[in-house]
């Protein structure tokens, strides 16, 4: 026994000695200087192949935990900079104990990297954007992560930050240090029918997307203790790009800067506690843009490999500053179908070397060698070919060498920010933290709280609150039965399992709902029944028996014809819904229902994600134990809901004002702040709320003005909101009584700060609160859709013609009428001579067109009351002119 202990002791000391020797060249550099000196020393120690290798992230098929996997030789021989893990490629499975499997993979990879000299930690990344596969790589044993759209729908940065922190803790626990996501795309105009961002967006307002993303990323950094590189996509923003296989957009550079780039720019300039930007890396988009350079006929190449277009963006002052501070660009996988189509020759062979070179020369620092081939050995051969091509060019092209050295320096700084000094004890994940940080009840509770805030009622017919299912009332659930694989070896699983829906309804009913009263049918079964397909199930008894019909939908996708079932049921087979309560549940992107289809629903609720806790939340809403309090995070034109209008400041509010430090104070409470001539006074306004009672987005302008009694005014001083508040420094340049107010259009009322400024002694501050009624925020009430709109005439007489005549028809008939009237006047006036005939004809012509113009303007442009007021004026003008002409007509005795 003693001999065994002795051997174990020698093994431990041997490992420690080997590790110390392996890190010997690095430790002194870390100890002798800061980041700059460390990076300089490290670059001097790195051979050329190690520098080139740092440019590449690699994804190869197969279980890379095996020591004989081709990735292992790439790591040792080509000195690659990192790995992106993919369950679709079979790198790990979402079966069994996935957290332990991931930890084993990341630990073994970093340990292998530690055997190289100098030791440079690997980037080990996953795509974890939320809403399950394919957008979340790790699902088994991990917290169920909501979609970005569901997080944006909370309108609560604190809850979103808590979700981000939980995810950061889990990623750090399994050794993942590179997160591909979240998306920062701003979905201005949802177009689900042609392929938009779907649920992979935080919303439709650029400032609000910035605010939610800032909270989410701050949570990720806190949860991972700063050991996570976050690479959001898709730079410069795909929110206005559409398409199923390839995204295209019609935008100018100015359009991108003013709208799509806003979240990226905001997070690039937001500092962390270390002073570094919150976002230090971004994934570059593959979209094509028409009109980017000013010509409507020109298309860019896929942006990630278009040096002209991407280079233009990198010269923008804010992005250039970010790059100078170490910002890094990450390319899409070179095996992406869009790049394959771009670089395929006539025989279908892909030139990955040229694709990699174009991506690097366009401005990408990290090149992702992914999806190169389905066979691991062939994929490794192609990756090796690309890396060696770069090494050869590095040794012969001085300009290329300088570009590589600059990119490598930026990459090393990112790794230094994660692991200062590259100490192995910090780099290697700690197995002891795994069970304490992954899939905990606390994380699940955080997700549930976020979803409770995210669910929204888009439409409700009849009573408020709406009715709920009663005992004995059968429920028919029609569910989108789409299935996915969570990994290459995983069986297909439905995104919305029938048993999950049934169990959620039983639990929400408190056990009052008999399972026998619930029937679940898939969209595919219902489509087969409606089309009378052979061997289709007979669903008529299910429809006849049901008192409630619940439609559980994801999104509508052309690749899945059954996903269009709601249109068929609500549009063409509405006779099956007579006398029943019909409820629509949206578990995915905005479903493109028409106003007529929505009007046939009893209720319409959306939660924007299909993870299991979302089903539980929707069931609680159905049974009335949870009342939706949110609103949509994007515009829904069918419902008359326009987000840009809702996020504007509420004109009925009174904006609170305060002075001095905002922390620890309450609006309206005088703060002990020194006020003397020659000083500046910090004045803040807020919280400023929008039309639905939520805090306004960041960037809303607020105008502060001051008025001295009998001495004129100062200002305005303009500040922009951040977290619902705006702050400004106002100079106090004279004695007297100063009153300060604030305006944030269309909110024009605020507290009034009355400040008495004296020269030789501190002044006084008083706060006056205008007496206005307060109102508590209520759930957003969306307009009721009108399925059969009818036009109502706004003015009597001719204006009603516009209901049945087009504009040109009305103009033509009016012209003929006025012309005939003028000919009649000319004939009557000829009796008194040609002069009188032409004069009366001209006046008649003028009278007719005055009448036409007033009636048309009143009926189509002005509001209804104004049109009614104009009708007597038009009629009176016509009567006076025609009457005057008639009085001047020749009589029989003339």
Mean pLDDT: 85
Q: Which ranges are low-confidence, i.e. pLDDT below 50, for 5 or more consecutive residues?
A: 1-32, 664-668, 776-781, 783-808, 857-870, 890-894
- How many beta-strand segments? 28
- Count of DSSP-assigned helices: 30
Q: From the helix content, strand content and strand pairing, which structural class follows?
A: alpha/beta
The end-to-end distance, rounded to whole angstroms, is 145 Å
Largest sheet: 8 strands, parallel
Radius of gyration: 34 Å
Strands across the major sheet, in which order? 5-4-3-2-1-10-9-7
Helix content estimate = 25-40%
Tell me, briefly, the overall form.
globular
Strand content: 5-15%
Q: Care to give the gist of this entry?
A:
This protein is of the alpha/beta class and 894 residues long. It has 30 helices and 28 strands.
Textual characterization of the structure:
The protein is of the alpha/beta class and 894 residues long. It contains 30 helices and 28 strands. It is globular, with a radius of gyration of 34 Å. It starts with a helix and ends in a 7-residue tail after the last helix. Residues 1-32, 664-668, 776-781, 783-808, 857-870 and 890-894 have low confidence and may be disordered.
Mind sketching the topology for me?
Elements: H1 2-22, H2 27-32, H3 35-45, H4 48-53, E1 56-58, H5 70-78, E2 82-84, H6 98-113, E3 123-127, H7 148-152, H8 157-173, E4 178-183, H9 206-223, E5 229-233, E6 248-250, H10 253-260, H11 262-269, E7 281-283, E8 288-290, H12 307-314, H13 317-324, E9 328-333, H14 337-343, H15 352-362, E10 366-369, H16 376-396, H17 398-418, H18 424-427, H19 434-437, H20 441-454, E11 456-460, E12 475-479, E13 483-484, E14 493-494, H21 498-508, E15 518-522, H22 523-530, H23 540-545, E16 548-553, H24 565-572, E17 581-586, H25 595-599, E18 603-606, H26 612-622, H27 643-646, E19 654-655, E20 657-659, E21 680-685, E22 701-708, E23 712-720, E24 726-731, E25 736-743, E26 749-750, E27 752-757, E28 764-768, H28 807-829, H29 834-860, H30 864-887
Parallel strand pairs: 1-2, 1-10, 2-3, 3-4, 4-5, 6-8, 7-9, 9-10, 12-15, 12-16, 16-17, 17-18, 19-26
Antiparallel strand pairs: 11-18, 13-14, 20-21, 21-24, 22-23, 22-25, 25-27, 27-28
Helix pairs in contact: 3-17, 5-16, 8-9, 8-20, 9-11, 12-15, 15-16, 16-17, 21-26, 28-29, 29-30
